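Re: the 363-residue chain
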Amino acid sequence: MYTIVVTGGAGFIGSNFVRVALRDPEARVVVFDKLTYAGHRESLAGLPADRCDLVVGDIADGRAVAEVFADSRPDWVVNFAAESHVDRSIDGPRDFVEANIVGAFEMLEGVRRYCDAGAPDGFRFLHVSTDEVYGSLGPSGLFSETTPYAPNSPYAASKASADHLVRAYRETYGLPVLLTNCSNNYGPYQFPEKLIPLMILNAVDGQELPIYGDGGNIRDWLYVEDHCEGILLVLRKGELGRKYNIGGDNERTNVQIVDRICATLEESLPSSENPSLGRAGVAGYADLKRFVKDRPGHDRRYAIDASRIREELGWQPRFDFDSGIRATVEWYLNNRDWCDAVQGNEDARRRLGLSVEAGAPRG
């Protein structure tokens, strides 16, 4: 068997990756997670206990990182652990510096020590990043692996800093690192502050569907399982020191996303059968849409050129946007217990990000 340490493995993308990795019966996964508001034991429920261990700890704690390396002796490490919500970074950037910059530094130092002490042959460290490091696009063009960095939020700047550290540790110390930058993910186990789960849950509960600005901000949407399969492929076959963009080629405006969710809910849970809409005084889910004040520094458009991972490694997404949204809506409808458990006492759907408007999506 081989061992993968997955930092942030109790979070959204991390927990989905753990499930994808464990499809291989020879894989053992050690989840290293701080279990903050966005990381939960519930997201690891049902996984094989003999091949999946949870270690609670902070990637910004060098001693804890060293202990995980020493105790698990990993063959691979994948770093998902990060603060990742733009509005939270506007209100409290210090947490993002600690988790995303200091955390990446401590992980790289841990890798350096591990390699110096004799890591297993074929050891690799993959750092998961975001397309937001590239800034904002105009009406045309795509982000490639050579696009200059131009982050526009504290979150994006912290992730850009981590990317630079990964590159520097490769160039300076020759570490066996890989880097991926992804577009917006959606799917199961996403904390309900993000656009898609927030809109699904608000609509089902008959609450307003707040949309930033004019709703015209564009993102390239990637179903999380496709992303995780791409990461695993890069981990296995990617060229060391290389970076790979992973995108879904599914550009949509925010208002198009909300409209698609409303239409899908009408198929899965018709508004005529949902008493919450009657109590809200509306006839259909789309009647809940509201346009609210935009957030500061809101990038207008992101879009990923994923030709490198397609051409070099043969990756292809299996979900188009419609099939991914249907699967996502069904998951949230069928897993309200998970949603209630992870939100706890926090009002996860309350807007942050320096605005007086209430209830708008974060991320």
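The longest strand covers residues 27-33.
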